[in-house]
Automatic annotation (TrEMBL), chain A:
Protein name as catalogued: DMSO/TMAO reductase YedYZ molybdopterin-dependent catalytic subunit
Entries under PANTHER family matching the protein: OXIDOREDUCTASE MOLYBDOPTERIN-BINDING DOMAIN-CONTAINING PROTEIN (PTHR43032:SF4), PROTEIN-METHIONINE-SULFOXIDE REDUCTASE (PTHR43032)
SUPFAM superfamilies for this protein: Oxidoreductase molybdopterin-binding domain
Pfam families linked to this entry: Oxidored_molyb
Annotated spans, Disordered: 1-22
Residue stretches of biased makeup (Basic and acidic residues): 1-19
Domain Oxidoreductase molybdopterin-binding: 81-227
Gene3D superfamilies found in the cross-reference section: Oxidoreductase, molybdopterin-binding domain (3.90.420.10)
Automatic annotation (TrEMBL), chain B:
Protein name (Swiss-Prot/TrEMBL): Formate dehydrogenase subunit gamma
Chief location category: membrane
Record-linked InterPro entries: Cyt_b561_bac/Ni-Hgenase, Di-haem_cyt_TM
Organism from which the protein derives: Streptomyces pseudovenezuelae
Stretches assigned to the Cytochrome b561 bacterial/Ni-hydrogenase domain: 17-180
Localization annotation: Cell membrane
Topological relation to the membrane, as annotated: Multi-pass membrane protein
Protein keywords: Cell membrane, Membrane, Transmembrane, Transmembrane helix
Residue intervals passing through the bilayer: 24-45, 124-143, 163-181
């Protein structure tokens, strides 16, 4: 029965009208569209990424960056605030299973030979930033300078945000496309992007590229990093891990 | 508060619009939705993310508020008056078609906006936001319990969750905007009563 009608039998509308249950149809229709959206998402997403990617390049307002998959970097921090470091107080330590533990200032790192790479950045949550230049010191150079001992098998990275950590096997760490990066997009790395020094692991998802890098410790075995203890893969090759099939970045 | 005209009017001029059940369902749902929106903004908009950080905590709060979002309506179902209102929202009469047609043509003439207890716009909004909330809940659960489903589902669910969140943000803004423009409607949800004059003007087919 239509309660509106029932309480008001003298209403001007025809009495046959109980009303149509359109509300229920709208609700079920919304649910159906949502389910359809999940099914069609891979196709829709590819189309939208292409469209928004090109729109973002011509968008002076930056509003497209706020749209889902609108392109560009996203800021993720696992702590409430991160101290700022600069040339005066930044230190990078290399220790653990090494012959000579070392501490580098920002100027020390700048004085070492720099390597520049231009590759895509791929986040495990889906966003990708094409052709991003990174520049810095090869990690293998710092490891060689410290003298890695024979029984070691992994490298652990710690950060001055006080919480984040990452790790690589020694073989991975010695790859030539892994940098202790000082510059990104041909600028010194700013605080929000993990500056002054961050790790750059080109072939892996971007959570491996720890921001605010402050410690490199050579260990025997891989210790899972912050997000890896929370379910992400330790060997985070782009397109071959975390169940994703993105195009490789290297 | 002597300035408020509604307190000055004689009580007989007021009509009962909502009981405690409807008001508390609306209140708690609105609060939970607010938490979802604010935490979503902190997870999603870079400027807020930089301000707040604490990603894990914000995610946890967002998940809990999202899970709780349908609870007030489900609890409200024990109330007969709340169920009656759901019936009003569900059923569309021929006057609702007139209302919707006028709304589509942006025709604001009173005669073309017939409405019973709820107008057609409110009915459509209620049904859509209920459906959208359930889609957000479903896709949210897929993103949360990733081990239960194949990874492609998670990516797809994220896609729907993101875009629907944006849509809900806009629609919710409209909902709040309209409430801000109609103090008497807000009084109805706050105190349960509205003036007879307002009821006759805004909901001429409604006979409380």
């Amino acid at each position: 029965m239509n309660p509106e009608r029932a309480e008001k039998p003298e209403a001007s509308e025809p009495p046959e009208e109980r009303g149509t249950p359109i509300g229920r149809r709208v609700l079920l229709g919304t649910l159906g569209l949502g389910a359809l959206g999940v099914l069609a998402a891979p196709t829709l997403q590819r189309g939208l990424e292409g469209f928004l990617g090109s729109a973002a390049e011509k968008d002076p307002t930056g509003l497209t960056g706020l749209l889902p998959n609108g392109g560009g970097f996203r800021y993720y921090s696992v702590t409430s605030s991160v101290p700022h470091k600069n040339a005066a107080n930044y230190r990078l330590t290399v220790d653990g299973l090494v012959d000579t533990p070392k501490t580098y200032t920002l100027d020390d790192l700048r004085a070492l030979p720099q390597t520049r790479m231009v590759k895509d950045v791929q986040c495990v949550t889906g966003w990708r930033v094409p052709d991003t230049p990174f520049e810095g010191v090869r990690l293998s150079r710092l490891l060689d300078a410290a003298g890695v001992r024979a029984k070691s098998g992994a490298v652990r990275f710690t950060c001055f945000d006080g919480a984040y950590s990452e790790s690589l096997t020694l073989d991975q760490a010695r790859r030539s496309d892994i940098l202790v990066a000082l510059r990104m997009q041909d600028k010194d790395i700013g605080h929000n992007h993990g500056g002054p020094v961050r790790l750059y692991v080109a072939p892996m998802y971007f959570y491996k590229s720890a921001k605010w890098l402050s410690g490199i410790t050579v260990t025997e075995d891989v210790r899972p990093g912050y997000w890896e203890e929370r379910g992400y893969d330790v060997d985070a090759w782009v397109g071959r891990s975390n169940g994703r099939d993105d195009d490789p970045t290297t | 508060m002597t300035l408020r005209p509604d307190t000055a009017a004689p009580p007989s001029a007021d009509v009962r619009r909502f009981g405690p059940a409807q008001r508390w369902v609306h209140r708690t749902t609105a609060a939970l939705m607010g938490v979802c929106v604010v935490t979503a903004a902190c997870l999603y908009i870079p400027q807020f993310a930089e301000l707040v950080g604490r990603r894990e905590l914000v995610v946890r709060v967002h998940e809990c508020a999202g899970l709780a979002l349908p609870v007030p309506v489900l609890v409200g179902l024990v109330s007969r008056r709340f169920r009656a209102d759901l019936g009003h929202l569900n059923r569309f009469g021929s006057h609702d078609r007139i209302w919707l047609r006028a709304a589509l043509h942006r025709d604001k003439r009173r005669a073309l906006r017939p409405a019973a207890k709820f107008n057609a716009g409110q009915k459509v909004y209620a049904a859509w936001i209920a459906g959208a909330t359930l889609v957000m809940l479903g896709t949210g659960l897929l993103m949360w319990f990733t081990h239960l489903t194949p990874i492609q589902w998670r990516t797809s669910a994220t896609f729907v969750h993101d875009w629907l969140a944006l849509t809900i943000g806009i629609v919710l803004g409209g909902h709040i905007g309209m409430a801000l423009g109609d103090p008497e409607a807000r009084r109805g949800l706050r105190t349960g009563s509205v003036s007879r004059e307002w009821a006759d003007r805004e909901h001429p087919l409604w006979r409380p």
